[in-house]
């Protein structure tokens, strides 16, 4: 009888724990969908090699009131790059590609200054290549009826490098377009077929495919965003609009995939269970940073743009289109996938809070999640005071300049200007020797009407970095006006 009661007690305890997790996740999702005005959302959670949660919320198609379900297909945007990173590492594992090899090893007729760029520098966005997007329509991504891939490629090769190769991080779509060309050449097939054969089939993905607004995609969730418009009297920023976008076929290695949260969950399971790579060392190598010319590690690991290589609860992932996010905790056997149909929803802001429902230590491990969760309670105006106290209590609490800056800019795009201003202010407090934080703070002060303080911040930025040409330009415009 004792064993029976012990088993019953354990089952009740596990059931209560599961209910607590579900309640916590539901609270986060409902809160964030309301705050960010997200029409529809999909969530999948992978734990210990199994999908333990696969849920859908809200509307897939607002105009026809069609709800999201588990087979609703969402655009992945730049989350496509993690699939491209895997494709590259498959070829590395097969001995067909070398991360340290110059791309001239694989492609002919490259400009002289491109020839020594390595595969690894493309993967980690330190190539310095010019961005191919400048040759596309800035609104739709269309290349126009007279522009073929050949025309785009030849024009791209005439544009000077944006920066010296290996010297600085510069995120752009050219890097993954070039990787796509190399994949085509080495596999003797299109990258589309290579992805389908070596990843989609290997992981038994049912709803993952390339495409954009031009394509007929079953169970597809249209993409939306909130945009300002003039109603004849004032500017209104609350209008939900349809997004139209194109990813030219030849450039889809950078952002052309569509999928479901469940499919991505199954892909991650296959990736970590050895069904996509032959060796676990390949996965470890992919989830490691490259190096700049001076030997410091890159912002990205190979193909994955979120690399939180902290002491505990390390996280690797990616975000796409400011609307979808994937995060893997390799040491915790946990992954979280959030897909939405709203550009600007920024699920990367709250995805670690969801993970924290399953492993509570994650909240403290991630400074931004810890900061955000507490500031929601005590107010963003208390950001500096909170950071001072937290730093004394928790030595590992070290918010990073770039993360804070990016978070604040995301809040600006969702019209949370007051909150964003406090985070920019916090960044100046934490990094007083960084010219960039003063530049960003100055920009937002001007946008929120604090001209004198904005000028002061720009002057400080230029004092720290006399080469800040953008700052000089802004101050000249203010002076002339």
Automatic annotation (TrEMBL):
TPR repeats lie at residues 435-468. Keywords: Signal, TPR repeat. It comes from the Bacteria. Residues 1-18 form the signal peptide. PROSITE patterns: TPR. InterPro entries: AmpC-like, Beta-lactam-related, Beta-lactam/transpept-like, TPR-like_helical_dom_sf, TPR_rpt. Pfam families: Beta-lactamase. Residues 26-349 form the Beta-lactamase-related domain. This is CubicO group peptidase, beta-lactamase class C family. It comes from Chryseobacterium vrystaatense. The lineage of its organism: Bacteria, Pseudomonadati, Bacteroidota, Flavobacteriia, Flavobacteriales.
């Amino acid at each position: 009888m004792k064993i029976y009661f012990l088993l019953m007690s354990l089952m009740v305890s596990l059931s209560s724990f599961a209910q607590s997790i579900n309640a916590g996740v539901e609270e986060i999702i409902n809160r964030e969908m309301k705050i960010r005005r997200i029409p529809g959302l999909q969530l999948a959670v992978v734990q210990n090699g199994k999908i333990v949660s696969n849920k859908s919320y809200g509307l897939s198609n607002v105009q026809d009131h069609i709800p999201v379900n588990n087979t609703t297909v969402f655009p992945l945007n730049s989350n496509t790059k993690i699939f491209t990173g895997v494709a590259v590492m498959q070829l590395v594992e097969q001995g067909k590609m070398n991360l340290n090899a110059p791309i001239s090893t694989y492609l002919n007729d490259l400009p002289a200054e491109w020839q020594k760029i390595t595969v690894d520098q493309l993967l980690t966005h330190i190539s310095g290549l010019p961005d191919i997007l400048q040759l596309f329509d800035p609104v739709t991504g269309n290349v126009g009826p007279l522009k073929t891939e050949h025309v785009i490629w030849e024009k791209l090769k005439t544009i000077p490098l944006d920066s010296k190769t290996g010297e600085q991080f510069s995120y752009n779509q050219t890097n993954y377009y070039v990787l796509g060309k190399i994949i085509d050449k080495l596999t003797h097939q299109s990258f589309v077929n290579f992805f389908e054969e070596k990843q989609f089939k290997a992981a038994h993905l049912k709803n993952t495919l390339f495409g954009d607004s031009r394509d007929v995609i079953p169970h597809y969730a249209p993409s939306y965003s909130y945009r300002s418009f003039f109603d004849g009297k004032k500017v209104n920023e609350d209008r939900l609009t349809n997004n139209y976008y194109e990813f030219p076929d030849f450039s889809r290695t950078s952002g052309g995939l569509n999928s479901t949260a469940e499919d991505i969950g199954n892909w991650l399971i296959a990736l970590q269970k050895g069904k996509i790579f032959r060796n676990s060392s390949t996965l470890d190598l992919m989830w490691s940073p490259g190096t700049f010319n001076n030997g410091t590690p890159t912002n990205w690991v190979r193909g994955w743009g979120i690399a939180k290589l902290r002491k505990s609860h390390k996280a690797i992932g990616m975000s796409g289109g400011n609307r979808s996010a994937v995060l893997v905790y390799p040491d915790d056997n946990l992954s979280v996938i959030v897909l939405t149909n709203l550009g600007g929803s920024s699920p990367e802001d709250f995805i670690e809070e969801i993970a924290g429902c399953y492993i509570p230590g994650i909240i403290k491990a991630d400074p931004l999640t810890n900061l955000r969760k507490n500031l929601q309670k005590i107010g963003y105006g208390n950001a500096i005071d909170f950071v001072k106290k937290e730093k004394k209590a928790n030595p590992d609490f070290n918010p990073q300049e770039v993360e804070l800056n990016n978070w604040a800019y995301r809040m600006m795009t969702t019209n949370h200007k007051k909150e964003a201003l406090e985070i920019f202010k916090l960044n100046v407090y934490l990094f007083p020797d960084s010219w960039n934080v003063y530049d960003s703070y100055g920009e937002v002060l001007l946008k929120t009407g604090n001209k004198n303080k904005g000028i002061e911040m720009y002057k400080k930025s230029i004092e720290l970095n006399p080469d800040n040409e953008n700052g000089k330009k802004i101050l000249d415009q203010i002076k002339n006006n």
